[in-house]
Design goal:
134 residues; alpha/beta; five-stranded parallel sheet; 6 helices
């Protein structure tokens, strides 16, 4: 299994973030885990220019239902980023939503590579990495 450089978790639920971090650490599949509590924080992280350029996580695990900017609104803003900036990023919707409309909507957005149900576990994470990074 390929080791990732950075995973960005975007979720407003602190216990979920905590558990997802544990799953990622247990699988030992990345050098760095970053978190954002809503879509605005995540977009700010991606668009803030640093000395070495922009933050470019390998994988973004994105919740749909969040305050301030939800997952869909995040994707609207994400799609305005340059192709170079998002070239290596894989966005996966990680949600409790069982709404088939959400799945259809996610499948219609080219930048969303997968739609996965919570909770995240090692098998699911391993599947995501093997599917999108091999």
């Amino acid at each position: 299994m390929k080791r990732l450089h950075t995973i960005l978790l975007v979720d407003d639920d602190a216990p979920t973030l905590f558990l997802n971090k544990l799953v990622i650490q247990d699988l030992n599949c990345t050098d760095r885990v970053l978190t954002a509590e809503n879509g605005r924080q995540a977009i700010d992280m991606l668009t803030e220019k640093k000395d070495d350029g922009f933050l470019c996580p390998d994988l973004i695990l994105l919740d749909i239902n969040m305050p301030i900017i939800n997952g869909w609104e995040f994707m609207d803003k994400y799609q305005t980023l340059s192709a170079k900036q998002k070239a290596k990023i894989v966005v996966v919707m990680l949600t409790t939503s069982l709404n088939p409309d959400d799945r259809s909507r996610a499948e219609s957005i080219e930048d969303i590579k997968d739609f996965v149900s919570k909770p995240l576990d090692e098998i699911t994470l391993k599947d995501i990495i093997e599917k999108h990074f091999n």
